[in-house]
Amino acid sequence: MKPYTRTLGTLTLSTLTSAILVLGSAAHAAQPAQHAHEQSAAAHEHDADMHALKLNEGKKWQTDAPLRQGMSTIKAALDAQRAALHEGTMSEANYEALAGEVDAQVAYMVQNCNLDPEPDAVLHVLLAQAIEGSDALKGAAESSRSAGLEKVAEALQHYGDYFEHPGWQAPAPITAH
């Protein structure tokens, strides 16, 4: 993702979400601007463009250290909240802390990952899904905060389905209450 770091340095998270979606669409090479706009709008309407998820000729995409670190950190932050979730003691502070970690790691990955265009486009779909989850965790989306937990967990599960990450164990699914 290095080619994008020059233009993403000062963007807000919501602008970053749009940029990820548009840049992910551009990585599919030569799609018309109207099509990219339609994809971005559709993704923003809760459909995070999941059809763009694909394997590398039947194999998982290779990762780099910043991607593995960012996804591992998000997973650890989600796992740290599991007890509170299962005990029904998730507080606003728990949700906010997890959202902050997701946001920080997405920004880190955008700045530091250096993937080829095809896996980068697949990653953008997952990052958009994680950002959507983060927005819900903060109460900034129409969905519930627990739906945000579900969305972040789904992004991590898809990551393991599409990217090679030695030792990766996807988090158990979370069902929104």
Describe this entry's structure for a reader.
With 177 residues, the protein is mainly alpha-helical. The protein has a domain of 103 residues. It contains eight helices and no strands. Helix 2 packs antiparallel against helix 7, helix 4 runs antiparallel to helix 6 and helix 7 runs antiparallel to helix 8. The chain is globular. The N terminus is likely disordered.
The pLDDT mean sits at 78
Compute the number of helices.
8
**Strand percentage, roughly?**
under 5%
Series of secondary-structure elements, N-terminal to C-terminal: HHHHHHHH
Question: Rough shape?
Answer: globular
What's the β-strand tally?
0
Low-confidence stretches: 1-46
User: How far is the N terminus from the C terminus?
Assistant: 35 Å
Percentage of helical residues? 55-70%
Strand pairing plus helix content: what structural class? mainly alpha
- Cα gyration radius (Å): 15 Å
Oligomeric description of these chains: single chain
Instruction: Please give the largest β-sheet.
Output: none
Q: What features would you highlight for this structure?
A:
177 residues; mainly alpha; 8 helices; disordered N terminus
Explain briefly what this protein structure is.
This protein has 177 residues and is mostly helical. The protein has a domain at 65-167. It is built from eight helices and no strands.
